[in-house]
Hints:
16 strands; alpha+beta
Amino acid sequence: MSGPTTDAAMGASASALLADVWTPQDPxxxxxxxxxxxxAKAGWFDLEGEGSAAALIAIADALGRAACPIxxxxxxxxxxxxxxAFADEVRRGDVRLAVVPSLDGGVRGLEAASALTxxxxxxxxxxxxxxxxxxGTEAGTARPEWGVGEIEPxxxxxxxxxxxxxxxxxQLRLALAARAAAGAARLHExxxxxxxxxxxxxxxxxxxxxxxxxxxxxxxxxxxxxxxIEDAVSAAEANADDWELRAELAVRHIAESARGxxxxxxxxxxAVGYFSEHVGPWLFRRVxxxxxQCAALAPNAGGVTDRxxxxxxxxxxxxxxxTFRAEVRSVIASLRRDDGTYEPDAARAAxxxxxxxxxxxxxxxxxxxxxxxxxAVLQHEFTYxxxxxxxxxxxxxxxxDAIVAHGTPEQQVQFLPLVREGRMRFCxxxxxxxxxxxxxxxxxxxxxxxxxxxxxxxxxxxxxADVADYIWLAARTDPQxxxxxxxxxxxxxxxxxxxxxxxPMTALSGETAATVFLDDVLVGDDAVIxxxxxxxxxxxxxxxxxxxxxxxxxxxLQRVLDDVVAAGRRxxxxxxxxxxxxxxxxxxxxxxxQALHGLVRAALGSTAQARLAAPMxxxxxxxxxxxxxxxxxxxxxxxxxxxxxxxxxWPEYLGRLAPMYVIGGGTNDIQRGLIARGLGLPR
Length: 683
């Protein structure tokens, strides 16, 4: 065939073919031969031209879900490396080969062994094609079991260079990882379906908190893997210079997350999924087999951290607004002082002068209807550079956007200029001593008194309250409302109002927050944002802005990673040699960070999947920050706790700041509950 159909069509046809001829619970040699025959006719070994890499991954996905080990990726690589005559035989299915990294210790670990005729040995720069005679199997491995064999002398050999063999190994690793990710994803889906119907102790198990928590965690891993695979495939199709790094990021993420997804699914399925009549055991064994094969094909270029130390950069994921990004970076560079810091007033003026504060608003309100992509770029770049404009950017996304959507014309005239000029100093009056993540149960009351609103209550953990001019305050105006969130109203209250008392406290991060006491505070109707008892709509309408703000966590973590890599370039001993535990730990962080970038990017959309990606990004970002802090302690030792350490002051600060990312805006436990319900699990 001249080229593949679309990857979606190829994946669908592969799934249909496997459903007809393959049974994971009984993977016989005859069944394997039948699949290979049908696969050759369907063109699985003849993927050429535009879209071929995407088609390969679509087939790998179908194979993973069916727990079928046909080595399609091996053929994909071989047809690009072998002479034309041999390549044609592979395409027809007459030469049925598996790729192995070496012949050390003999020929072992042969995938789909009963059908093989040849092995292609991909060394570091060399290629050798050998006929093979399979002599046995390796007991205990995933069925159909790996084979062992004897080889005949090479019938073709070539020295092609390490760059060529590295690219081939990376392509194989990506396909194997995609196949493993698909197998894990299918078992996860079966577990979710099971949790919706299985009853224990008089309840559907999907209502149990433990089931919801682990299901949500697995869903985040599955979503992250899918995004990284998609990114790597797109880069490979475009022959991008960094496609191999993108592939390695996907491989690393899947190598670490797929096992957790499998185990979470088995915990939910219980004994139902433990015995061989269920597809679970076969998916479990096949996924582990794929991950083991993937590890054996490590490229000479090394892991992610090795490549970063050699000069690569963590790739931008998702693209979008790149012209604007270049403009923002140029402005930031012009603001940077010799010591690498920024003067706050100059930074604020740069935002104001260019109209970047409120640029997404309609022109009649001072904006230019800029797309969400540009807001995300602005947040990422200023956060990454550590320019001190956090409050100015947050005032747009939380206060300004809400007033644009819900404020009266008079409120828009009063407040929007303050936001556009970077002069809106506010704090969030949401959390209370008895209602942290459970905002709908807040107790601060606002009642009508002589044509005004009298507000009484207490807010706590209120960041920047000591320097704020206004409190963005949620209060209960209807104590009898059902559900409770229907009785909440949003107020904007000047901190100078009589009855407002602010008592500062110091957070673990060193930031100043406060307890805010509200004792019979009187405000007029002009302080109400939106409708009375409609505050929940105002609060939730800020979700788009919160999705942009989440990109700041990813930007901060990327900057810390880049700082550590830069320190490693200056001091080659800091991160140890290739293969060291320090580099492996940073590989893991980099892969998870790339998945976070993908989820943040996905959350900027308007679909149901985007709305689910938002809490996923929130959970992953917070917990990655916590884990990264621990990794830095292991990697940097005492320097991780010194403000003048090898990687600068931020490793120490990240460790103290990280818990807030897990707590703020609703704890990760609550966010996982939202994710679980988004997957269809019952309340």
